[in-house]
Amino acid sequence: MYNQFKSVSLSHRNAPLAIREQLALNEAEAKSMMLRLKDFFDIADVLAVSTCNRTEIYYSSANDLNEDIIKLLLIEKGVEDVESFKAYFEQFSEGDAAVQHLFHVATGLQSQVVGDMQIPNQIKHAYQWSADLNMAGPFLHRLLHTIFFANKRVAQETFFRDGAASVSYAAVELLEGLMPNPKILVVGLGEIGTDVCRNLSQNTNAEVTLVNRTRSKAEALGAELGFRVADFADIETEISNADIIVSSIQREEPFFTKEMMVRLRGMSFKYFIDLSVPRSVSPEVEEVPGVMLYTIDSIRSKADEALQRRLDSVPHVEEIISEAVVEFNDWSREMIVSPTIQKLKGALEQIRKEELGRFTKNLTESELEKVERITTSMMQKILKLPVLQLKAACKRGEAETLIDVLNDLFNLEKEKESH
């Protein structure tokens, strides 16, 4: 069988955040998991992908090891209730389905925010881990490079990567355009505030401070992303020091008011980005000189426009993926005939050398060189048609029959043993 690729997938499509958090793998854990798989199972082409929205294991094996791999992953992460967690996983036991799934994941078609621009880099990191551990074979190398080329086409030929299609990413895109090297204060670390911070971590020029009513949550996120943390009690001092304040506080009344801004008069120019519903920044703050406010409505409108452009591009992206999958499948089918081609070349080369040895003893060096060129060219022309026929048979799904014919015709198995 030319494609023995398989995978298990835990993602936002089937599992809530609380479950995904328990099974997420950092780089060290992903590499450890891959080494465990190598020790326990006879598998190749191992790829461990882990993001905030998914944890997936890909591998090549003649046997379906999906259930065993899920159990091993759960045990490695300290999950005792293995049976109940298994229901959160998607399993891909057919090679074509596993390949198609990885294409869709790597291009962002299955991301929580369709067209997610971070996913190609995350796949590249996973591929690098696999290569570092010598667990990427020819199949995986070819598959990933085909995916990367398809991603390049998606970026160049469609609007699928254009604009910020999530509110948090649109907010970060906005604030990055406000000023160079800003001091940013993020207040409130719910889901959207946390997403903003993760997107901000890609910007090395910003100086970010986190404030949350529950300080332990801010400290955990700050330690993960390398951001400074301050006490909620010191909020006014932090506002005075910041250039941009991103607020996602959940409360019924605005927290940032005109009165607060007047009280902090003498401060430098401030931008507020209010991502809260209901709003946490009073519109009246803009009455204070030097204060400018952006609301979630304007940011969401921008994100919705970008998302619609991406959704409109999905058919074109699917077309690019289909073309890439066909190309990859043609190549992977040819892997079946590659050993036969090499054996045939070896058998003919052996005959050529033996016959030259018999009849060229009295030739001069220049004559021998000419004979070498002539016989090599003849051998290549003799090989050309069988090789083309083998590759064509692959596309028709008839390669095995032609392989048997060539093995019998040229006695390739015996030739392999004798040489």
Automatic annotation (TrEMBL):
Coiled-coil annotated spans: none
Residue stretches making up the Glutamyl-tRNA reductase N-terminal domain: 8-158
Positions that bind NADP(+): G188, L189, G190, E191, I192, G193
Residue ranges of domain Quinate/shikimate 5-dehydrogenase/glutamyl-tRNA reductase in the record: 181-300
Residues of the site described as Important for activity: H101
Pathway: Porphyrin-containing compound metabolism; protoporphyrin-IX biosynthesis; 5-aminolevulinate from L-glutamyl-tRNA(Glu): step 1/2
Catalyzed reaction equations: (S)-4-amino-5-oxopentanoate + tRNA(Glu) + NADP(+) = L-glutamyl-tRNA(Glu) + NADPH + H(+)
UniProt-listed GO biological process terms: protoporphyrinogen IX biosynthetic process from glutamate
SUPFAM superfamilies per UniProt: Glutamyl tRNA-reductase catalytic, N-terminal domain, Glutamyl tRNA-reductase dimerization domain, NAD(P)-binding Rossmann-fold domains
The enzyme's E.C. designation: 1.2.1.70
Protein name: Glutamyl-tRNA reductase
Organism: Dyadobacter jiangsuensis
Gene giving rise to this polypeptide: hemA
